[in-house]
Amino acid sequence: MAEQKIALVTGASRSVGKGIACALGSDGWTVYVTGRGPVGDGGPLDQTAATVTERGGHGIAVQCDHRDDKQIHELFTRISDEQEGRLDLLVNNVWASPKGFAGFTDPFWKRPVDDWDSLIGVGLRAHYVASVEAAQLMVPQGSGMMVNISSFGTRGYLHSVLYGMSKAGLDKMAADMAVDLRDTGVTALSLWPGLVKNEAMLARGLDNFQGFPLANAETPEFIGRVVVALAGDPNLNERSGSTLITAEAALDYGVVDIEGNQPDSHRNLFGGGPLFGG
Predict the structure, then answer these.
(1) Catalytic residue among 32, 128, 157, 163
(2) For this structure, is 163 an active site residue?
(3) Which family does it belong to (predicted)?
(4) Packed helices 220-231 and 15-26: angle between N→C axes, nearest 10 degrees
(5) What sign for the dihedral angle of Cα 112, 92, 246, 203?
(6) Which position has the higher pLDDT, 2 or 278?
(7) DSSP 110-163
(8) Model confidence at 100: pLDDT above 50
(9) What is the DSSP string of 249-276?
(10) Cα distances (angstroms) measured from residue 192 to each of 22, 93, 152, 226
(11) Which CATH number fits domain 6-270: 3.40.50.1100, 3.40.50.720, 3.20.20.240, 1.25.10.10?
């Protein structure tokens, strides 16, 4: 029997984080899932963990405010203690919107400067802190994968100035971490999902989002299936430092969405061109 692998998915109460955690559950992983919400009251984070377990994995919900370095450190200490120092996968997905999500319609000079604290403080810095902690477990074991959930907002304007800055930072972070991680067996990647039809969009009955049709949009679990395929690639370390587009990586690995469809890459819609690592 294969040894069960250990993952941490941050920001997994809903949407992309939940989809990734559930796909890992279907592949038999032990998955720690985090969020700011309480644990033990049957809320969204507990529900994600329960679904991971129902799928055949082992879901463990941990309340963590990723704005607090101490809480992040305590999270990784717990994982190390419970899993004998082992961690095979970190998915950096936690994110916090600025005050008033509709504020994304305003130009940067009309927005409060403390938007930085959410979009950069959580959307970039917290990922760096988690990666530092993860590397301290993965490098000694000689294996592991760290994945940043980034965005086409790196390539073209999307949402706001700070949103794009944070996503571009994630891609550069993975590229440069790969240099430091060379010959350690640990892989660092950044991943661009396409348009994701999440719970909020479905609840609103939308058929398009900002002009993009939802008919062939990605489900959160599609992104998770791509992460599972990447984690299972014996030659994955050759791609370390790369930024990958989920729809294109799915073609590489023969991954389809939950209804058997193949979501489209938005590369050309955002100007085309190469990404880090290719």
Answers:
(1) 163
(2) yes
(3) Belongs to the short-chain dehydrogenases/reductases (SDR) family.
(4) 50
(5) negative
(6) 278
(7) GS-TTHHHHHTIIIIIHHHHHHHHHHHHHHHHT-EEEEEE--GGGTS--S-HHH
(8) yes
(9) HHHHHT---TTS--PPP-TGGGT----T
(10) 19, 12, 6, 11
(11) 3.40.50.720
205-247 pLDDT, tens digit per residue, is 777 776 677 778 999 999 999 999 999 999 999 999 999 999 9
63: left (phi over 0), alpha (psi -120 to 50) or beta: beta
What single letter denotes the amino acid at residue 67?
Answer: R
Contact 111, 34 (CB under 8 A): no
The residues, ordered by sequence, that sit 6+ positions from 219 with a Cβ below 8 Å of its Cβ are 19, 196, 197, 257, 258
pLDDT recorded at residue 2? 56
**In which residue are the tokens 């959930």 written?**
149
Please give the distance of CA 45 from its chain centroid, rounded to a whole number.
Answer: 16
Cα–Cα dist 43/38, whole Å: 7
